[in-house]
Amino acid sequence: MDASLHTPASLRARSEAAAGGLPALLMGAERLAATILLGEHGRKRAGTGDNFWQYRAAQPGDARRSIDWRQSARGDGHYVRETEWQAAQSLMLWVDDAASMRFAAQGRPSKLRRAQTLALALAVLTIKAGERAGLAQLPEPPRGGRGQLIRIADALMDGEASEDYGTPRPQVMPMGSRAVFLSDFLAEPAALTEALTSAADRGVTGVLVQVLDPEEEAFPYDGRTVFESMSGAVRFETLKADRLREDYLARLADRRAALRDLCARTGWRFQVHHTDGPAETALLPLYTALEKRR
């Protein structure tokens, strides 16, 4: 191991480089969120919302007055009593940070950066509307406030998994909340199926956003080609890449059909976004779909 990586100068340089991406990501997400006009907020609509929904363990940052002392007296911890409205006003986000998401062709943004920007823009819209946003990478439940946006942005910038393909992190989402998963969804679907089935059992609805580079849709390869996974774990060489195109496109279509079917069975929605298009083309229908889920 190179000892120079542990010098104060190197540590400072790497820290500044990591921190430098955070404001850029957050500012980009806020500019993107500004393109969406917030209409009438869901909590102003008629209907009941004060019904008891669930107890959850108190977390750092919860107001003292929110603790249900009677319920807490029955156990060793402190518990917060949540109402139906509080649960429904929570948005949970999962951004796939596996190696495959770092793919980018012809100067386009990587799938990961586009997914991060969209997720953070949704968090901005959610929190500005007085609601709460959470991230699967964080152990805490959804929260509101500017500080939560910083925590989400920081966690997104930290995430870069080593495996080729990602699956949703197992996490219990608030009952009746909404969720958005952003990924290329190229991993085996078993973990995703379990995650959406579990979410549906808790009344959680949401949207799957498949983020792909156009090159992954077109498969524009011919002749001798070396295919290598983003992590370098898989390498394949062929002299006739064009002969693989038909099988590849068929498998991609099958995967997309399976994702649509999974969403239909669990009450979720499915969207596809390509990184050569502006992020606004994904954010507006995504935000609209979430509004309809209130």
Task: Sum up the structure in keywords.
five-stranded parallel beta sheet; 294 residues; alpha/beta; 40% helix; DUF58 domain-containing protein; 2 domains; DUF58; Rossmann fold
Rounded to an integer in angstroms, the radius of gyration calculated over CA atoms is 21 Å
Arithmetic mean of pLDDT? 79
What is the CATH class of the largest domain? Answer: Alpha Beta
Q: Based on helices, strands and strand pairing, what is the structural class? A: alpha/beta
Strand content: 15-25%
End-to-end Cα distance: 52 Å
Tally the helices: 9
CATH architecture heading of the largest domain: 3-Layer(aba) Sandwich
- Within the CATH hierarchy, at the fold level, what is the topology of the largest domain? Rossmann fold
Number of strands: 9
Order of helices and strands: HEHEHEHEHEHEHEEHEH
Instruction: Label the overall shape.
Output: elongated
Number of domains: 2
Strand order in the largest sheet? 4-3-5-6-9
Helix content range: 40-55%
> Ranges with pLDDT <50 over ≥5 residues?
1-6, 10-19, 38-50
The CATH superfamily of the largest domain is: von Willebrand factor, type A domain
Largest sheet, strands/sense/barrel = 5 strands, parallel
